[in-house]
Amino acid sequence: MAEEKKKAEPKTRKKKVEIAFNIGKRKSAVARAIGRLGTGKIFINNRALDVVEPAAVQMILREPLQLAGEVANGIDISITVSGGGTFGQAEAVRQAIAKTLVAFEPALKQPFLEYDRALLVADPRRNEPHKPSRSSAGPRRHKQRSKR
């Protein structure tokens, strides 16, 4: 009977995360992030975060880092992003950074969700597929009719 009680008790000890793999998505852009304990360096497609242009994109990418504060200084993140446009990729990278920071510090999850849910949850919206026989015209367009 004592053995059964041991199995029923939940494990409270958590193992310290040393490496984390996460994915961020936005429209057709996909960002794959690898996080390790380190000195706070962030590379996107082998380029430092400080080199990213335009400045508006750089601001988007820094949001989760500013919310995380000192936690971000101890984590190195390497991100590979492909697909989509400039801002779609920026949103995907932003999400990948936020998910990686939460993997290392679970207490950040609530502040991230309160600030912007898109930091941790992918946007499910997609374009509507084109319908048969009118594939070049779009999903809902009909032929224009003249009244007279």
In short:
With 148 residues, this protein is an alpha+beta fold. Helix content is 32%, strand content 20%.
Task: Give the total of beta strands.
Answer: 5
Structural class: alpha+beta
Enumerate the strands of the largest sheet in spatial order, edge to edge or round the barrel: 1-2-5-3-4
One letter per element, helices H and strands E, the order comes to: HEEEEHEHH
How far the N terminus sits from the C terminus, by CA atoms, comes to 88 Å
Query: What about the largest sheet?
Result: 5 strands, mixed
Percent helix, as a range, is 25-40%
Description of the molecule:
The protein has 148 residues and is an alpha+beta fold. It has a single domain (16-119), classed as Ribosomal Protein S5, domain 2 (2-Layer Sandwich), CATH 3.30.230. The chain is 32% helix and 20% strand. It is built from 4 helices and 5 strands; from the N terminus they run H-E-E-E-E-H-E-H-H. The protein has helices spanning 2-8, 55-68, 86-104, 109-115, and strands at residues 19-26, 29-37, 42-44, 47-48, 75-82. Strands 1-2-5-3-4 form a 5-stranded mixed β-sheet. Strand 1 (19-26) and strand 2 form a beta hairpin. Helix 2 runs parallel beside helix 3. The longest helix is centred in the middle third of the chain and has 19 residues, at 86-104. The chain starts with a helix and ends in a 33-residue tail after the last helix.
